[in-house]
């Protein structure tokens, strides 16, 4: 655990911790674990996690479990994928048959040895029929893929919707301490980016992975079937091919012998001339020798071709090593004048089938990476869903529609860290309609006290009662429905002024909205706007001043008509003129309501019925402003050190200076 150490000088030279201007900010100062992101957190602003899932298979099984409610749809998707893959694998085979029709027709149309005339040529009727079948297969496969994609996207959307709803419910059940110890970016990444990764994995990885695996299996079955059929045909109908390698060796030896003989022949002739066996003879080329040279060249080319076939045969697969044999068999048939189409040796349909193997293999690798990312995101999301929740509610009592507002704290003990006690044996009683100002140094427990009243945290000991009812016997929503809050950092949403005020009570009529605006001084500046109450406010109120934003939040709290009111430094960031308007609005808001005020301006809590001075979680002094100043205790010291400069800035003279008596000015201390 570590606290923020950056500090800045406040008004009057007082050193305050930076950022301690609101309930939430002060809470972070009082207790905050420094959260250090790790690789597992990934990119908090988008993208996939940078680290693999630590527990892959448990997270994978739980991710698959999200699809159990969609069993029927998953069965349909699987069947459609199987059928579409089958059609996609069968189509190249039919296309190969069409290619055979073309090849056999072209070769058959030529004049063959021993035949009186050419063959019939290409059978265009059969070719057209096969092409139409191929077209129908591809169209059917495309339609089935679109159908399975539509069903898959629909079921994934339903699954992700339920997951997001579960996350939203989980957010509402988490204790405030969960958010104290985690960065907002990490939490947003878990509930947005990680869920998006899960959706992508379910939509793409699973369907495409299944499709690619089935595609590879189907192609593998087809290739094995072709290899087995081709080998069986070769073994029974072409036994000569079994001696292919031996024939290569004989052909190579014969080619070498021929080349040697061709070299020896001119050497013998030349030697005869030189040695005188044939004096005066001239070396003349012989026709027989030229023919022998050309024959040797053809033989060498044929041997080189066979050696290339053997090299490819050694390094290629079964299907590819059959291709040269099948082509050689066709050439043999063509030379021999055999025009029979050789049904068992069709191989042209292999090429489009093999062309799909590598893309499918790459797709499997890519989808595996996407699946890994999705499982890592699922693990982080499930870790969030498994986080400890706040104490379950035991609703046994109910409050009237509007409570009286009597608040009692009896022996309250609380600490964020079990080893560090913050509030010890705190007791307090506040009558209905009274205003209680809470002052003290930073970290004294002021914000913690109001958070305990709203039951953001559970007590370690003691009880808090509202109108005599223990708050633990009320539902949290019922308790918080009795409380209105006005913070220094006013929050407005993008919408009209009327909608922002009505947000305090959605069923309020337009007349009630205007009445609340008039009571809280909002109507005065709204009437000056061109569109009045229909003026659209930008997100976070960017087109209105800070004082106007605070007035709007006061009007929102006014229309909610709460029995308890919590004001957190509601006038610390406005000018003097606007502060007067806010004072009147606050006075109207506090009328007949029990109010707890945390502030550091004198005018904010001048008329408070009770001022609590807290130090280290204890109430050290408790009384009204004049009485506390007269005691010259902790409140007096706090005032003298922190608020004399504030009084001088506001232009207020101390009563003691006007009357010459030793009397301190009216005012209230601040946090």
Sequence-ordered SSE layout with sheet pairings:
Elements: E1 7-9, E2 15-17, H1 23-30, H2 56-65, H3 71-108, H4 124-173, H5 176-180, H6 184-237, H7 244-275, H8 287-315, H9 318-336, H10 350-354, H11 357-385, E3 407-414, E4 423-430, E5 435-439, H12 446-453, E6 461-466, E7 469-470, H13 476-480, E8 483-487, E9 495-496, H14 497-502, H15 510-519, H16 523-526, E10 536-537, H17 546-560, E11 564-568, H18 576-590, E12 594-598, E13 610-615, E14 618-623, H19 625-631, H20 634-642, H21 644-650, H22 655-659
Parallel strand pairs: 5-12, 5-13, 8-11, 11-12
Antiparallel strand pairs: 1-2, 3-4, 3-6, 6-7, 9-10, 13-14
Mean pLDDT: 74
CATH fold group of the domain at 44-235 and 353-385: ABC transporter transmembrane region fold
Largest sheet: 6 strands, mixed
Strand residues, percent: 5-15%
Per CATH, the architecture of the domain at 44-235 and 353-385 is: Up-down Bundle
Find the CATH superfamily of the domain at 44-235 and 353-385. Answer: ABC transporter type 1, transmembrane domain
How would you describe the shape? Answer: elongated
Task: Strand order, main sheet: write it out.
Answer: 8-11-12-5-13-14
Structural class: alpha/beta
Question: What's the N-to-C terminus distance?
Answer: 23 Å
What is the highest CATH level, the class of the domain at 44-235 and 353-385?
Mainly Alpha
Low-confidence stretches: 1-50, 270-283, 308-322, 332-348, 652-671
Rg: 45 Å
Helical fraction: 55-70%
Number of strands: 14
Please give the count of helices. Answer: 22
Describe the structure.
Among the domains are: 44-235 and 353-385, ABC transporter type 1, transmembrane domain (ABC transporter transmembrane region fold, Up-down Bundle); 244-341, no CATH class. By secondary structure, it is of the alpha/beta class. α6 (184-237) runs antiparallel to α11 and α17 (546-560) packs parallel to α18 (576-590). A 6-stranded mixed β-sheet has the order 8-11-12-5-13-14, with helices on both faces. It has a 4-stranded antiparallel β-sheet with strand order 4-3-6-7, covered by helices on one side. A two-stranded antiparallel ribbon has the order 1-2. 55% of the residues lie in helices and 10% in strands. It contains 22 helices and 14 strands. It is a multi-pass membrane protein.
